[in-house]
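Z., the sequence and structure:
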Amino acid sequence: MKQSGKFNGRILTLLALLAVIGFPATAGSVSAQTAQQPSASPEPQQGGDLIRQLNLTPEQREQIRSIRLNNSSERLAIKNQLDDANRALEDALNSETPDEVLVEQRLREVASAQAAAMRMRILTEIRIRRVLTLEQRKLLRSLQLEAQQWRRERRLDNAVRRQERRDARRQGVNQRNGLAPIVPRRP
């Protein structure tokens, strides 16, 4: 259990850097903060401070802040555009008689806004990577791979747990107390 906590620190550390440099933390994909198996990579510094882990200089920190600040208004405009496009698509789908042509148009608008958001994230990432040294980029990449592996393991673990719950429901086992129902289910 202690190792799981240390691994959680790594994930929190990676999320902190991603927030600092504007990577897409595909959001719901790293939202759960518990892990089944720790990674074999070196332990991060306590407190989950990725900035310390990457050993960013004050100049690098300032450059990264500047990059993010310069992109903030465009990032907000793109976010608003994506929100509006999603709302318009939802409205088109929820209408009394959905128009397929209109839905297709709304889908193109959503795709365009998503592409703009991805483009912004990628360009920001490139600019920030230029600020990092070769060693820092290597460390960042290893942390990204570690987080990716962790997410993959979590998805597999979650799929196994979901299947176990489905199987238990099919067998008629009461999930709260493990007892079978008083009246058995009909096939």
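The chain has two domains: 1-56+151-174+182-187, 57-131. DSSP finds five helices and no strands in the chain.

Let me know what you think.
H.
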